[in-house]
Amino acid sequence: MGGQYVKMNLNNLLRPDAKTRWEIYRIAITCGILTHNQVLELEDRNGFDDGEDHWITQGFMKLDQADEILKLKTNGKKVTDPGSAGSGTPDA
Fold first, then answer.
1. How far are the Cα atoms of 6, 15, 18, 53, 54 from residue 60, in angstroms, in the given order?
2. How far is CA 81 from CA 55, 86, 88, 90, in A?
3. Secondary structure in 3-state letters for 5-61
4. What are the residues facing 55 on neighbouring strands?
5. Contact at 8 Å (CB) between 64 and 57?
6. How far is CA 61 from CA 37, 56, 71, in A?
């Protein structure tokens, strides 16, 4: 058949409008849930180099850089777990 195919995506029948979809994608990207390339794949668009990196909202950084940046911000001091009884501030 010359390399052509038909793609039937039933999810498109339940798909929200474009504004709602992109708001959902923005939240998923900034929370580190989806990568840029995963979102583009859902929209049947091509990805890009470095599009597989996960990001988080603390200054919008790559997830794998968070530990290093946290060390820089706290001058290398240990930070207590915010979920523990501690204050969540750098330990002396």
1. 38, 28, 24, 12, 10
2. 21, 7, 6, 10
3. CCCCCHHHHHCCCHHHHHHHHHHHHHCCCCCHHHHHHHCCCCCCCCCCCCEECCCCE
4. 62
5. no
6. 16, 6, 14
User: What confidence score (pLDDT) does residue 68 get?
Assistant: 80
pTM over cut 0.85: no
All residue ranges of the chain with pLDDT < 70 are 1, 58-60, 76-92
Tokens representing 67?
A: 């530990």
d(CA 53, CA 64): 8
- Backbone angles phi and psi of 91, in degrees to 5: -75, 150
What pLDDT score does 9 carry?
A: 74
91 residue type, one letter:
D
Paired tokens of 84: 């523990």
